[in-house]
Amino acid sequence: MSAKSVVALAGGVGGAKLVYGLAQALPAEQLTVIGNVADDFELYGLHISPDLDTVMYTLAGIANPETGWGLAGDSWQMLDMLVRYGEEGWFRLGDRDMATHLLRTHWLAQGVSLTEVTARLACALGVRQRLLPVTDDPLATLVDTVEYGTLAFQEYFVRRRWQPVARRVWFEGAETARTTPAVAQALAEADLIVICPSNPVLSIAPILAVQGVRETLQQRAGRCVAVSPFIGGQAIKGPAAKLMPELGLDISVSGLWNFYEGLIDGLVIDVADTFQIAGEHKAVLATYTLMKTDEDKVRLAKEILDWVETL
Ligand code: FO1
User: Fold this and answer.
1) I need a labelling partner for 199 at 20 to 30 A (CA). Which of 73, 165, 230, 232 fits?
2) Is the sign of the CA dihedral 254, 232, 157, 179 positive or negative?
3) Measured from the CB, is residue 71 less than 6 Å from ligand 1?
4) What range defines the domain where residue 98 resides?
């Protein structure tokens, strides 16, 4: 059974790299990406969806390759003017990136759903894979920190550079946020679900927290595998290896199995961590998971798709 429909659960930069690889390895109509929306936030009245934009720009081939977010070659005239007016400018909005936030905000104000907004933007950029917000309902990641108390996600992640010590992370709106019909159908019909190497707490957990996602993953017949975002106990990028221990979460291979308990049939880890699975009977693919080049991303995606056939 070669995977006919693959659904990737992805957050920001790390997840988008594997999404890129999967997009090269599969026909466009066989790949659906379900994106995290709990990083979304309002800035100057604009609705910004960082994780959806990172995946969309990546699939369109126009993402900034250095940062992983925003647009390649963007300019900062608008931001410079905001700073001239005395603004901090800690969240860097590029001039062309602004068009995305303006149009999204404009259409949302007309009552267009985030799902439809995302489809319009992605289609206009030539993206042929489906990119679905996990929910059209409000959902926001909040981080309770020792130094500043509760911080909104982007305040914690960008403004404070994830340095504050986290005591608790939760997703405001999770009790009422439901999967969109498109997401529910994609999850139910998927031959394979890939949990991308995004931050398990900040990017994947908010997707799993939406009503219906966890249940569908547990009940469905198809395969579900997760890709560890860690190599040798370190995160490639971002706060995962700092944040998870602060929350009392174990970032070892067994810790990840527990984190995704009951949801996954297999786990992809880096060869550097193979020593952790000595004697394990569980389905683990140990390979090179560091994705520096586009070739790395495609190779990893193809290895995963081949490996899943053996599960
Ligand atoms: N991340 C940063 O670390 N600094 C920024 O100034 C920044 C600006 C930004 C603008 C638009 C956008 O879509 C994303 C942006 N990000 C920035 C990334 C974003 O904050 C994070 O990547 C995600 O929220 C976490 O996955």
Assistant:
1) 73
2) negative
3) no
4) 6-139+173-310
